[in-house]
User: What shape does this take?
Amino acid sequence: MLNIAFVLVLSYLLVFYAIPSIIRIAYLKHLFDDPALEERKIHKSRIPNLGGIAVLTCFAFSACLFIRGEALPYANYIFAAGLLIFSMGCMDDLTGLNPYKKFLAQFITAFIVVYYGDIRLSNFDGLLGINAIDPILSYAFSMLLVVFIVNAFNLIDGINGLLGTVSFTASIALSVLFYKMGQTGLSLLGFSLAGAVLGFLKYNMGKHARIFMGDAGAYTIGLVISVLTIKFMELNIASEPTPGDNGEIFVVYSPPAIAIAILIIPVFDTLRVFILRIAAGRSPFIADRKHLHHRLLDIGMSHTQATVILGGVNVFMIAMAIAFQKLGNAELLLLIGILTFVLNALLWLYDVKTDKAHLDIQPGDSLPEIPVSANEIIGHAKQVAEEALQQNKN
Assistant: This one.
């Protein structure tokens, strides 16, 4: 228990004190996420997008310092894969990468953890009537699952604080469950990531974020959480309950359903936007403003409000899944699906009602005032001036 507190606090403090230095370097070297380059960007000023550097380095340092080799014997493959996908994300943040190169790097990363680390799902726990699966199918499905989760976490990184909040919630939930299961290494790995993300959130929450996570951070977080998720399911689906490091056995029922509840925001949002894009005859990989967080912003919520709402739904789903875990996978997944679609339908109805109210203009009514871009121009000029002052100071 003491090691958990130490690894959580250490990774938090390291990121908390590292981020200001990264922000200064980003201003000095003009390394920004420029909204002028992409129309759908929400932020109006140039913001450093190198937060993933602090998250990965501090998370890795804390984890390596506190996790014993025997507690996590495949840790070398996790960190090797993490360095690969982090490097690819950095190149994408700084120069931009071809989508095919990104997918190639993601599949190589997945291959390392699935094949060499043997971190894979070998049993569906009776879901859809399937239990043990063929090894080849196990490797293929597990690689696709890793790539899907990695991209799902990257796709929700659209407003301030959302990626950090969801990844913190997921890593804490999985880490607590691993701790109860006696899986010390996996628990410390998750708590180390949670502390690093919490330190980053200090500079990313609110309307005026000082730094973004970037693809490097989002991909790395997605990879670590995909590893934790697969190991959580595999250890609990085993025909015989797996004793923890302390020799005790803690049984979790319906692990696939609980895993989906933990990842409900990125999983549902990604599947939803892919279906909408395909239905509209567009590529599912072409970015747009169809995400849940965009919809919440469009109905008048702030970044913080949208993040709190989605984070609250995530926590509610996790608590509900754990409370009703003995229902079984099929029944629990049905309950999760019904609740998710009900919440989505309520958001849709509110969205339609709001749009109708805005369009209900009677004869003689004055038209809504159209916002001018003067504030945006002033904000951009202020940003450029701040950069120049920062560069002169250095």
About this structure: The chain is about 70% helix and 0% strand. Residues 2-359+370-393 form one domain.
